[in-house]
Amino acid sequence: MSGLAPPELGVVLVTYNSAGVILDCLESLLAARGVRLRVVLVDNASADGTPGLLRDWAAGRHDWAPSGLPFALGPVAKPVAIGDAVGGAGSGHGLTLIETGENGGFAGGVNRGIAALDAAPDGGPDRIWLLNPDTVVPPGTAAAFATAPEPAGGFSVMSGRVTYLAPPDRIQIDGGTLDRRTGVTGNINLGRPLAATPPPDAGDLDFVMGGSMVVSRAFRRQAGPMPEEYFLYYEEVDWALRRGGLPLAYCPEARVHHRAGTAIGSPAPGRPASPFSLYFKHRSRIRFVRRHLPRSLPMALAYSLAKSAQLRLAGHREEARAVIAGSFGRAPAQAIRAQLSPEAARRAFGWDRANAATSSPSGAELDAARQRGGSGHASRR
User: Looking at the structure, do residues 324 and 245 belong to the same domain, yes or no?
Assistant: First the structure.
């Protein structure tokens, strides 16, 4: 029995200015036991030297030893081979680097990585794990995802438990929920203690967070590519609605530690989301509502007004303005736009120009939102 090949799992990591976090993530992935990984790194035109750092690390020219992690981890032996195309099945972990030359957004990078894995000579792995570069994973997580039993008839997307890296005993998300009245998403078990919180029922999930999600081949065929027009946020929520009759799944043995917000300023314990994060999150929420929940648009906009007022009262004026700008189809503040390269800005806002007649709220929608503006509640995410 010792001659049996280990199960396989594809991994897609989309990097953008990830030099400060990506090596810990890779070291933890390549320490995975009981599984063979085909890891595809898709770099979205990082300006911080991420691709060069990866090559130096793989060649052993950049000394790196992970430290401060909540589990034991020794350095991976070097050199590590990095290819520019995904190979067939082999005996060890494989690593591929794709440089896109532009920031195509999260979904654009994901789709490049999935396409590369599916184009492998042997058809690639059945399961592909989409993972944020600011995560670290215990040695058994990848094998748990690769071998987790699936429901009869298969599954679409599988979730595991995501905890914060600091503190490591607090849950960030066990899966996502969707409020169809406002389009607001929630994190199941957010902030709860790890040891005292049982795993959720997969039937309670509406979607799986894009920072750690395993997609099946059946789902990829059913849903097609991850939608790219959001640029940031809500891609995975929209994608989950395209799964047809394939259920979501949950793997209780799979755990990921997430630094949270290192790239775009998503919220973390004790820290609100950045204006950049808030602008794109609420912009994408309203876009999602227009597409899938059009009757909920007035309430969704009312939520935006209430959320902005809450932030303003707490002294977060730039954040409050970002919520309004993103929700009501306005241009972002210069400080937000300056974080995007010209190519990324064209990608992010090209959809708006092409759909200008329908992307901004009408006068009647604005009036309805203002009338409901005091009834919103703070988001849990």
Answer: no
- Per-residue model confidence as pLDDT tens digits over 177-188: 999 999 999 999
Looking at the fold, whether 202 and 134 belong to one and the same domain comes out as yes
Q: Measure CA of the first residue to CA of the last residue in the chain; give whole Å.
A: 46
Q: Are residues 284 and 352 in the same domain?
A: yes
Per residue in 81-133, pLDDT (tens digit) is 999 888 766 668 999 999 999 988 899 999 999 999 999 999 999 999 999 99
pLDDT at residue 263 in the model: 53
186 and 247: one domain? yes
| The total number of structural domains that make up the chain | 2
Residues of the domain holding 339: 275-375
Residue pair 116/96 in contact (Cβ under 8 Å)? The answer is yes
Peptide bond into 151 cis (omega under 30): no
- In this prediction, residue 142 has a pLDDT band, given cuts at 50, 70 and 90, of very high
> Residue 182's closest CA among 295, 329, 276?
295
Residues 241 and 345 both lie in one domain: no
Give the Cα separation of 13 and 20 in Å (integer).
14
50-59 vs 22-30: helix crossing angle, rounded to 10? 40
pTM, rounded to two decimals: 0.89
Calpha distance 152→156 (Å, rounded): 12
